[in-house]
Amino acid sequence: MKNISIGNNVYIAYKTYLSSMSLTGNKKPILEIGDGTSIGNFNHIFATEKVVIGRKVLTADKVYISDNLHSYENISIPIIDQKIKQISHVEIGDGSWIGENVCIIGVKIGKNCVIGANSVVTKNIPDYCVAAGSPAKIIKKFNSSINKWERID
């Protein structure tokens, strides 16, 4: 597959759509999936510049991951006829778990994070965090000094 790199022991489930296409002017878009990752059913992962999914990442079903959006600025033109807009590279850190129906658009998610079901991630999430909601907010963080997950108020 052109512009798509899939590591060893990667599982990609039923009806998942992977694409890495130059729709925003980038000559070498890349979609990378790291070793041991498991991608659920009906995932849609689309790179126009760069999407990197780390090692041993787990995605549930119906996850959407993209580094781009449809433009909608010009209200006199149907959205389908407007350009694709580059947002930002997507990176999902090693060991993270992405819940069912999650949308990840142009952000970095740290390692060993949990993204709760039905979340829309539009801001970066640091390592060792649990985030949930629409838009996703950090609700727990791992405190290494006491070796426990702590709720964020």
What's the CATH class label? Answer: Mainly Beta
Low-confidence stretches: none
The CATH H-level homologous superfamily:
Hexapeptide repeat proteins
Could you say what the CATH topology is called?
UDP N-Acetylglucosamine Acyltransferase, domain 1
Q: Total helix count?
A: 0
Reading the helices and strands in chain order gives: EEEEEEEEEEEEEEEEEEEE
Characterize the biggest β-sheet. 6 strands, mixed
Question: What is the number of beta strands?
Answer: 20
Strands side by side in the biggest sheet:
8-13-16-18-19-20
**Proper CATH architecture:** 3 Solenoid
The portion of residues assigned to helices is: under 10%
Q: For the terminal residues, how far apart are their CA atoms?
A: 45 Å
Radius of gyration: 16 Å
**Beta content:** 35-45%
Helix/strand-derived class? mainly beta
Q: How confident is the prediction overall: mean pLDDT? A: 96
Mass-distribution shape: globular
The tally of domains stands at 1
Describe the model.
The chain is mostly beta strands. The protein has a single domain (4-151), classed as Hexapeptide repeat proteins (UDP N-Acetylglucosamine Acyltransferase, domain 1), CATH 2.160.10.10. 0% of the residues lie in helices and 42% in strands. It contains no helices and 20 strands. The protein has strands spanning 4-6, 11-12, 17-20, 30-33, 38-39, 44-47, 50-53, 58-59, 64-66, 68-70, 84-86, 90-92, 97-98, 103-105, 108-109, 114-115, 120-121, 129-133, 136-143, 148-151. The strands form 5 sheets. Strands 8-13-16-18-19-20 form a 6-stranded mixed beta sheet, with no helix packed on it. A 5-stranded parallel beta sheet has the order 1-4-7-12-15, with no helix packed on it. Strand 19 (136-143) and strand 20 (148-151) form a beta hairpin. It is globular and about 55 Å long. The model has no long low-confidence stretch (mean pLDDT 96).
